[in-house]
Amino acid sequence: MARVVVDVMLKPEILDPQGQAVQRALPRLGFDGIADVRQGKRFELEVDGPVDEAALARIHEMAETFLANTVIEDFVVRVDEESTAGKAGAK
After folding, report:
1. pTM of structure
2. Mind spelling out the 3-state secondary structure of the chain?
3. Residue 77: closest CA among 90, 64, 91
4. Is 6 in contact with 63 (CB distance < 8 Å)?
5. What is the pLDDT of residue 1?
6. What is the pLDDT of residues 30-52, one digit of tens each?
7. Torsion of CA 7, 81, 44, 41, to 10 degrees
8. Positions of the chain with pLDDT lower than 70, given as ranges
9. Are 6 and 67 in contact, with CB atoms under 8 Å apart?
């Protein structure tokens, strides 16, 4: 089984109140030097079978129609190479 990761983030022009709240809290907690914080979502999908172009296209469609609100969010689909490399070496 391979893992595909879908990262979803608010578009840069969309205000991020949760990220702003975290950014304001960081200096009070002793974490200085952070200029901006953006909050997002991460989905990890365990895929049965090979992660070929057809599987990635289907996951892209899933992200576009269900996982992300494309009016206000961008997303990136990627194969988690660590999960596939680790399992390829295991017997």
Report:
1. 0.82
2. CEEEEEEEEECCCCCCHHHHHHHHHHHHCCCCCCCCCCCEEEEEEEECCCCCHHHHHHHHHHHHHHHCCCCCEEEEEEECHHHHHHHHHCC
3. 64
4. yes
5. 84
6. 999 999 999 999 999 999 989 99
7. -20
8. 83-91
9. yes
CA distance 75 to 64: 8
Residue corresponding to tokens 């895929």: 47
Amino acid, res. 76: V
The Cα–Cα gap between 67 and 43 comes to: 8
Distance CA 56, CA 77 (A): 8
By the 10 Å C-beta count (0-12 exposed, 13-18 middle, 19+ buried), 63 is classed as buried
